[in-house]
Amino acid sequence: MNDFNPQIVAFCCSNCASSAANVAEGMKKALPDNVKIIQIPCTGRVEILHLLKPFEEGADGVYVAGCQEDSCQYVSGIAKATKRVTHVKKILEELSIEPDRLNVFNLSAGKGQEFVEVAYEMVNRVKELGPFLQA
């Protein structure tokens, strides 16, 4: 099980999270190879089906990286995303899937190190859970 390399999908807002990613790149901080970044205009645009689809396609974990609640360019985008993540965690639980395979993170634009740490945190969390096995 130690050689398990989970596939993670990350929905990142094009404002704060993407800026943090650029800062990380400038700091020569690399994301894990197994984290696939999907840039979106705002995390508030992530719908329930978007959060479930990666699991259907074989991902082992999913996370949303967005702005701090007080600095969302679209005012309530990250709050909407957080509500949807909470809802999808309940759906996963009802399907006997570990809800910890899904999470949401708030990042500010200048936090490149934190952006990379979040990615590694998700990889390590999902590694502990093991592969996602579809029924």
Which features characterize this protein?
135 residues; alpha/beta
Low-confidence stretches: none
Question: Helicity level, as a percent range?
Answer: 40-55%
CATH-derived architecture:
3-Layer(aba) Sandwich
Number of β-strand runs: 4
Shape: globular
Write the layout of secondary structure elements.
Elements: E1 8-13, H1 16-26, E2 35-40, H2 48-56, E3 61-66, H3 77-94, E4 102-106, H4 112-129
Parallel strand pairs: 1-2, 1-3, 3-4
Helix pairs in contact: 1-4
Structure write-up:
The protein has helices spanning 16-26, 48-56, 77-94, 112-129; strands at residues 8-13, 35-40, 61-66, 102-106. Helix 1 crosses helix 4 (112-129). A four-stranded parallel sheet has the order 2-1-3-4, sandwiched between helices. 39% of the residues are buried. The protein has a single domain (8-128), classed as Rossmann fold, CATH 3.40.50. Strand 3 (61-66), helix 3 and strand 4 form a beta-alpha-beta unit. The mean pLDDT is 87. The radius of gyration is 14 Å and the shape is globular. The protein is built from four helices and four strands, in the order βαβαβαβα.
